[in-house]
Amino acid sequence: MIGTLRRTGLVAAAWLVMSVAAAGVTPAAAEPPAAPDAHHSAADYTASSWAAYTSARDTLTQRGADAAGRERLQQAADGLVMVRGLKNLVADYKTRAASKYTGGSWAPFAEALAKADGVAADASATTSEVAAAKTALVTAAGNLVAADEGTFQTITNDVFWNDTSGNPIYSQGGGVFKFGDTYYWYGVHYTGAELYRANPTRKYDGDVSFVSIPVYSSKDLVNWKFENNVATRSTGLANGASLGQAGWVGRLGVSYNETTGKYVLVVQVYLPSLGGDGNGVLFLRGDSPTDTFDYAYYQNQVVNSPTTGTGDQTVFTDDDGRDYLIFSNRSGRSRAFVGKLRESDSLRVEPAVQIGLNSSGREGNAMFKLDGKYYHAASDLHGWNASVAHVIESTSSNIQGTYTSEYTMAGTEMDYSHVTQTGFFVTVKGTKQTTVIFAGDRWADFAWNGIGYNQWMPVTKSGSRPQLSPVSQWQFNATTGEWRVGQNNNYILNPDFQADRVTVSTLTGWTNTGGSVTNVSPGANGSRFALQLGSGSAGVRQQITVPAGTYTLSAYAKTAGSVSGAQVSVADASGATRTLNIPSSSGWTRRELAGIPLAAGTATVTVRTSGGTLTVDGLGLVRTSGDTPTGQRYEAETAPAVCQGTIDTNWAGFSGSGFCNGTNAAGAYAQFTVNASAGGTATLGVRFANGGSAARAANLVINGSTVSAVSFESTGAWTTWATKTVTVPLNAGSNTIRLDPTETAGLPNVDYLDIGAAAA
Ligand code: GCU
Ligand code: CA
Fold first, then answer.
1. How far is the CA of 671 from the centre of ligand 2 (A)?
2. Relative to the CA of 645, which ligand 1 atom is closest?
3. Per-residue pLDDT tens over the stretch 105-132
């Protein structure tokens, strides 16, 4: 155990009562002896260190609070060896199956796992042995290489995200960190976020009341499982304070410290009772990524920063495992800093190195590394508003070396980074390519700039510079690192006119073609903004890049006065133009023009009117046909799939993390929810195993209607998997596909469903 154990207020108070009762005297200014935190118990420590601790504690209780006894107890407490985190890791990694990984990556992992298992079971293991076993295991697990091609999962922006249990994800101003083979996402849950999600027609300015710091886990960066609140309002801090008393909690990240084997959460905080002016960096510490974290340290000012606290901050972990705090100075925010977290325990930001200077101020500071270069990105000093991403890039392989002058990241100009502020980046080194995810924070609960808090988009290299693709929907394969535009992507940028948030006469992403142009509130949804043209002739246009295909153009519109020639049109690279005419209508009406063929290349979207006033909102340009992605796979164990039975892993050969073993009963179904780009007939492949000797029959129920019956023949063994191909009618958009068994044997074991599978 490095340093001393934390003393929670609870334990200190209990000690006071106990010592008064035992010794009949108040131990005045005497420090209460160190003791394990309230949420730690015998099973969390090695048997021998716990025995030494309890014996010192019991002796002290019998003899009263003499100084020597307290000293002995302090030593025993300092000598406690925490193994809970290692035990958790080992239990988790024992669920991995060798068949899923390349032999070359499995062998060192299996070795590290066996070693860690031994250390976790060793009653007299030392703290440094535990830390070393943990680090070796996390490292080997991080190097595991999947033996398959992975699957594409859909990321949809402009909606509120849910976790795998269907509960809201509340995570703002945080970061995603990969520990072993799992991604962990930490952020802040604010009260304002709950209120806004329930009623997004109004703002919750300044309702930054802190609720908790949740942690979610994922293997694919798309399906996130809620794990724990690592900190809450009652998390105890120094000087008897608790986190709930803080005026601000946010902008956090986590460092795994290889020396101590601990996870350190580095949080921006404002809480005067912590010391100094109360603006500082708080360090909380846990024994596993999903632990309940405890107070460890508070740093009021980082050396070389001209002001206390930090402007904004994130934690960046380099390839070599070293962690850095990326921040700007709090007051003025003109200087960009990289401060290394102390290697011995990650509990201090060492003297920082200034890498950038901009007198206008920058915030949302975050960093990523691509092809050996460091890129520092930040937003305008805009409060909760959206912004382009300003980038400086390293001119050497030294993260604390020199950086270029600032440029705007391509792809962030036309919709202010999809109406976000830089939040953090996740770099995914796939088997085929490296993709960086730009995780933008949409502080909609405070700023009213659209729906959803988390807007994630891919960043790839275009020439020598990184470029953001501001897509509203995309598909990502975390195994290969590949991505592609999603079927429901809206190709129009800033389509809801929310990026500016203040009234302007030239809207972000739009070029005025003449006349009176402005944004007005409320928009079609009864709040936020819309584009208003006129009265008299006026127009705007936007140029975008589209792939060839057939598109649907849509808009919400209303008019005032006598409009003529009100329209939204789109012209493709060949100059062919299609026009959606807007008739007079005093109330908001949705208009749509389908079947628009567009050639690949630049398309121009134009909105115009020749008289009266035209107000438009919610523009859409969605591709309805082109090449439908094939091989879109839906695993039976992945929400929103439903398995009336258990998700099992006992029969090898399944894909993903398990298969659905339906209860052996008629009606015990497996259900998938799939997305189709267009209505029509689709071919589905159902992967199953039937180790029984008889075939199992099921109805195929699409969107609640039985369309056919399927028979799943015996495959001879539960480890022998086969694919049944069926043809079904699907609607455009979301569909439920249910396999509903009609006999008492129930379903075969079901692994996944492929949509758009090649006909067998
Ligand atoms: C066995 C087998 C299960 C299977 C079940 C069944 O119990 O282990 O995986 O689902 O048989 O007959 O349905
Ligand atoms: Ca079964």
1. 15
2. 10
3. 999 999 999 999 999 999 999 999 999 9
